[in-house]
Amino acid sequence: MAENETLESITEHERILQEIESTDTACVGPTLRSVYDDQPNAHKRFMEKLDARIRNHDREIEKMCNFHHQGFVDAITELLKVRADAEKLMVQVTDTNRRLQDAGREVTAQTEEVIRCRVQQRNMATTVEKLQLCIPVLEMYSKLKEQLESKRYYAALKTMEQLENIYIPRVSQYRFCQIMAETLPKLREEIKDISMSDLKDFLESIRKHSDKIGETAMRQAQQHRTFNSALQRQASLGCAKPLYSLNGRGPLQLNGRAPDDGTEEEEADEEILTAQDLVDFSPVYRCLHIYTVLGDRETFENYYRKQRKKQARLVLQPQSNMHETVEGYRKYFNQIVGFFVVEDHILHATQGLVTRAFTDELWNMALSKIIAVLRTHSSYCNDPDLVLELKNLIVIFADTLQGYGFTVNRLFDLLFEIRDQYNETLLKKWALVFREIFEQDNYSPIPVENEEEYKSVTGRFPFHDAEIEKQPFPKKLPMSQSVPQIYIQVKEFIYASLKFSESLHRSSTEIDDMLRKSTNLLLTRTLSSCLQNLIKKPHIGLTELVQIIINTTHLEQACKYLEDFITNITNVSPETVHTTRLYGLSTFKDARHAAEGEIYTKLNQKIDEFIQLADYEWSMAESDGRASGYLMDLINFLRSTFQVFTHLPGKVAQTACMSACKHLATSLMQMLLDTELKQISMGAIQQFNLDVIQCELFASSEPVPGFQGDTLQLAFIDLRQLLDLFMVWDWSTYLADYGQPTSKYLRVNPSTALALLEKMKDTSKKNNIFSQFRKNDRDKQKLIETVVKQLRSLVNGMSQHS
Fold this sequence. Notes:
The chain is mainly α and 802 residues long.
């Protein structure tokens, strides 16, 4: 057992020694630790084993040294021999080296000089090469500076682009190139700012020049339109005939002159200016190119469009007093035309800066504003001449913009609204003209002393009367001075209304219809109103009213000539289906009826004035034996008045006479039945009867011819039967025949007879205090009371029946 353990420990020690020999000294610790961790006395045995191993190695070293010792000794001996030779060689080498160094020192100096020159030469070549690369960069940069100074910004941007893409990359390692590269973006921004400043100056410039641009464009459009119109008229009328305007008043004027006054030559010599001649567009082109090169075109387009929209809103804002003069409208239109002429030029001269959609949007916005402004300001205008000039301006304005491709249909629609307003201003103007004519008229027939005066009147008014033409001079025409003046003014109104219809691109039928409608308004509203107001004026007497009726008759007859006049102007046949007829006939008929009614009214007022002068003594015992003075004056007035009515139509005079007699009879009846009249005597009845007899005599004298039989006397039949009943005192007959168609007192109403009888009854009681002592008076009083009772029963029966 002990032997086995000894063998194992020996084997283990061998292994440990092998590990120690083969392992790095830094890692021998764990191996040595295993020696101490083993069995007791293992350390001692290991040390013994270690000493044995050391002795073994020493013996091997000693064997090896003994083996190589002789060789080592031989080598040392040879080395000592070589030592002496080496020292000699060292002396020779040192001497050779000294002599070589002395000989090569000059060569070395020359060689170094050569090397230095070669380095300089190489540096110079390199410098030249680099300078050749840098010089184009510097030249381009110098060129850039010159372009900036001369404000050639677009070329400067191209130069920058070449510098950045071609030249600077070749010499980018140099500092000055880096500085240059850093400067270029700043220069670009500077160019952008400068070009934007130029654009702002351009926008301000075109804002100032818009007026002149628009004026030039509108003048050219007007010349073009006038020239085309002249050619069309010349073609339609023939080259040998002079050109006449639509109203037929004279040769067509070209720019205020006749075609043969050399105006065309002057216009040919006059330079035709365009927007390019008035405004320098280079700033906007330059700015557009610059922003395009810089890749910021969209920003520029948005800015330009935004600024132009702002300017459009400013241009569309009118002056507050624009409606006062035509120059205000002209300046407003010039600015708008100038604005859109510039936009049209920009549209066609640039690619995409503004588009047709943008200009159309801008124009539609402007058109709505223009129409609103014109509608508002034109409503303030009361001068038809100013409205007509405004219409001409609108037509030229529309033609000008239509020539640039803008739609203007809404402007012509607006002209139809303004046409109605123009007609209204014409109607107001002609109302003043008519009133002035009526105020200056003397309302007496026109006297003509000779043939020349007669032709002067008939040349102004279509009057034809065979009987008057046969009369010798001097003679009188039935109408007053206002008739030819009114006729002339109606024609002048037609001319004025026609002026507005020119250049509206409407057919002759439409123009004819417009003329007839406006003329109808003049007749039915303006002239009719003036006639009605004239008739109602208090200072217009019966003579004037008679003359007014005569005047309206002649004006009514002249209406057909007015229709022919319109037909000759428009060349539209009156047989056309939709031709509007003039309503002058009804106008003058209404005026005549109003004058007739006013005659009746004034006659009745005059009769009332005479009636108010009546001063009856209702308690008189007997009549004066003659008619009252006021009544005779009234009858004389009526006779003289009806003599004036000889020129009136027969029915008018007859109606006036019948109306006067009826009103007189009614007034006399009311006088008898006046509630304030309490008593009336038989003497007063007799006196009243005398007055009625004079009225009947006047009626029977036929103051106005044309009455059949005693028609006029029937106006007094009620009074006559009532007075006969009281004068004859025929109550028995009245009461017996009451209600019979053949009654003698058929027109006497029981209530009328009762009212008058009660007044006589009261008089009998008051004046005959002692009547009860006289038998006749007592019988009469009883009879009155009996009749009163019977009349009351009749009146009561009538009221119950009704």
